[in-house]
Amino acid sequence: xTSEGAHTFTKYGWLVCLWVxxxxxxxxxxxxxxxxxxxxxxxxxxxxxxPMYYGLPTCIPMSDATFxxxxxxxxxxxxxxxxxxxIVMDRYGRKGASRLSAVLTAVGSAVFGLSSSVGPLILGRFxxxxxxxxxxxxxxxxxxxxxxxxxxxxxxxxxxxxxxxGIMVTQGMGFGLATPRQWRFVLLISSGISIFQYFSSPFxxxxxxxxxxxxxxxxxxxxxxxLWGEIHDVSRRDPEEQDSEEPxxxxxxxxxxxxSAVRQPAMTIxxxxxxxxxxxxxxxxxxxxxxxxxxxxxxxxxxxxxILSKSLPELASYVSLGITIVNFFMTFPPIFLIERxxxxxxxxxxxxxxxxxxxxxxxxxxxxxxxxxxxxxxxxVMSFAFGLGPIPFVIIPEVAPPHAVSAISSVGLSLNWxxxxxxxxxxxPLRNFLANGDPMKEGRVFYVFAVALLCSTLWFSKLxxx
Length: 466
Prior knowledge:
Elements: H1 11-41, E1 52-53, E2 56-57, H2 64-83, H3 85-113, H4 118-146, H5 152-156, H6 158-177, H7 184-200, H8 208-213, H9 217-228, H10 239-245, H11 255-260, H12 269-274, H13 279-294, H14 297-311, H15 316-330, H16 333-341, H17 343-367, H18 370-388, H19 391-399, H20 405-435, H21 444-463
Antiparallel strand pairs: 1-2
Helix pairs in contact: 1-4, 1-6, 1-7, 2-4, 2-20, 3-4, 3-7, 3-20, 4-19, 4-20, 6-15, 13-19, 13-20, 13-21, 14-15, 14-18, 15-18, 16-17, 17-18, 17-21
């Protein structure tokens, strides 16, 4: 059973798609949430007239170092969530993994939102990180397995779009809810969304691919009918579509081998590392995820406030939201371009623009040209959004056979989380080391990112033939 004869979803299928995307939305939501709440959460902004509100303190005193621990434990949770994602997805299914992610987010957000000390904050943040790590692995796979093949690439971009929407929503909410009395609502709203996702799950179908691998053919047929409106047979596969998909796999793979792999038992991570025939798909995803993080996107977004507020001092609080809005709008072009231009060409265009932007940011900072740096940061975010951001998620289920996709996703996303953590950790020390105390040399760090991104992209291009 496959989706080759279907061109789009039924209305029910689109609702399932939105349900699945909730986990990616929550990933983006919590990536940005504490950035907006830091001042009120850590008692830098206080309400002296109301130290308590509904029996809870209006802020929790902590140093910058303690707040950094609270923030970074999200990344730690994400790493372990991604690392265990293949076990959860293969044991409980894509739907079951989504339900678990919803439970972890609901509990973690509620614990964080009702905390009165640092300990529960750390616990809640870790649980939300576990959910995000699991969710960011399963969402691209779930979407690919429920999507008609004619829109599979387009649909894969929605993972990144949902992440950006989550970031944008929390940044927008920060303007109204980042107050001593209301900051907890940001977390409780997230908990409410996940509670709704969990209790609506009985109305959502499991992935047809997962059902097929488990031998549940009748349930698979029912899921296909509800998602695509009719039953499609493998024998009527469009030859053109077959040709368009197969180059993404190693030369030894064929359509027959791919379909025969559907019934193979799910592969574990140790088995994946021991498999020589899956070495190329694994390295392809590792190279893609490395390129995404080594581009320095998170470091650039972190540093953007400091740079852009110099040229827009009175509008500093709107800078992050403005950049996220740019990111949001630039995520739409790949939805329409990914099938016309191709995955590899799109990511190469994205990297070329990102490299030029890095060089411009570095030159602007070293020359005191704040306006140039401001424009270059904006163009960098734009270039990341239409290629480096969505493409690595899109290709995960395309380069891996069904029995190995969960394991490859877990390894790739675990590396993504760990790279994110390391780059965030070394960015400021590396900038200060290269600048040697001279503010006019702070742009040198962006040259390092440009060289690293170029090397990782050349490696990716050598591996990926899509």
